[in-house]
Amino acid sequence: MSNQRVTFKTLLEILFVSTRLGLTSFGGPVAHLGYFHEEYVRRRKWMDERAYADLVALCQFLPGPASSQVGIGIGIVRGGILGGITSFIGFTAPSVIALILFALLVSGLDVTDAGWLYGLKVVAVAIVAHAILGMAGKLTPDAKTRTIAFFALAGVLLWQTTYSQVLVILLAGLAGFLLFKPQNLDVKSASFPLSKRLGATLLGLFGALLVILPILRETIESQSVAMFDSFYRAGALVFGGGHVVLPLLERELVPAGFLSEEAFLAGYGAAQAVPGPLFTFASYLGTVINGVPGGLLATFAIFLPAFLLILGALPFWDALRRNPKVAGALIGVNAAVVGILIAAFYQPIFTSTVNGAVDFVFAAFLFAMIAYWKMPPWALVIVGVIGGMIIGTL
């Protein structure tokens, strides 16, 4: 595709297929990868098995929303950079629109004591608990990784600042670099239609924005600049997917007074009910803070790092993943993600929601729905809302 002219028909095809996936892809990042494989590899044969596996491996390595980055990468293979942008818009737009509309609804209501809001908060308890167990089993299989996870948990809980998660992730990467030496690395080759010069430029822009935006925030009194900085940093520093963005955004936005904790957790629960990437939670948050323009700004800011990283890293991926030290650092980072997720589960989710036996039993029932009875997240949301309203009347 890199040497072929990208036609309008190709872009329209990408938009149609990705939008259909955006309307039907429930179940989180792992489920999204399954939908992508079925549609793009098995049915349409836009990529072969080997190229798809390479792309998934890269996106799991990078911070940001892995499933969205895979979708962008597939669009790039099919239609170049314009194809990547088109694929992203199609997959993401349905949930962005749904969550902006939900935010407008919430903004016009007094939700402080609403039963349905309580139900959504309990849904968040169940879903994050399930995410913890699933990730811990894969990412902390031994004493070393569990030790890293513990210190990450302690660090972000006992030292709650804007930069605590960043420092924890960096230290965990250093620990992994020193402690782990993976063997038998997968070194299958991949080919994507991007130059190394473009890749290096975009990676440089990614890093420059991480430095420049906080400086601008301190020198310019602007809510928009502050929002852009918060959402960009969250999107740039999240390893582990959408659930891990929760503590970063909560500690960026709630203490600063952008929105209440109740409104924050209501949106997190609602995000479970819509298809597409969980990072569109930012669309809800931005809309609550500053209307539809705020929602669009937050969406752009939180996904921009994903674009810069996937476009920048694709040309260098083969050489990077052949380095066992880099792979070792990733093991440490992934272990820290587990600790950060446990910290987020305790505060603010658990401490602000579970205040008695009824709350705990309700959360346990919702957890059983997703963990034991394999119900989809949207079913939890429905039961959570109805159950919350019933409990609220008792």
Describe it.
This protein is an all-alpha fold. The chain has one domain (114-393). It has helices spanning 8-24, 29-43, 49-61, 66-107, 115-139, 143-158, 164-179, 196-219, 223-237, 242-253, 261-271, 281-313, 317-321, 324-353, 357-371, 377-393. Helix 4 runs antiparallel to helix 12 (281-313).
Q: How would you briefly describe this protein structure?
A:
With 394 residues, this protein is mainly α. It has one domain (114-393). It has helices at 8-24, 29-43, 49-61, 66-107, 115-139, 143-158, 164-179, 196-219, 223-237, 242-253, 261-271, 281-313, 317-321, 324-353, 357-371, 377-393.
Please report which band the strand proportion falls in: under 5%, 5-15%, 15-25%, 25-35%, 35-45% or over 45%.
Answer: under 5%
Net shape: globular
Q: Mean of residue pLDDT?
A: 84
User: Number of helix segments?
Assistant: 16
Structural class of the helix and strand makeup? mainly alpha
How widely separated are the two ends? 62 Å
SSE run: HHHHHHHHHHHHHHHH
**Tally of structural domains:** 1
**Count of strand segments:** 0
Low-confidence blocks of residues: none
Taking all Cα atoms into account, the compactness measure Rg is: 20 Å
Major sheet description: none
Main location: membrane
Transmembrane segments: 55-76, 88-109, 115-136, 148-180, 200-219, 231-249, 294-314, 326-346, 377-393
Subcellular location: Cell membrane
InterPro entries: Chr_Tranpt_l_chain, Chromate_transpt
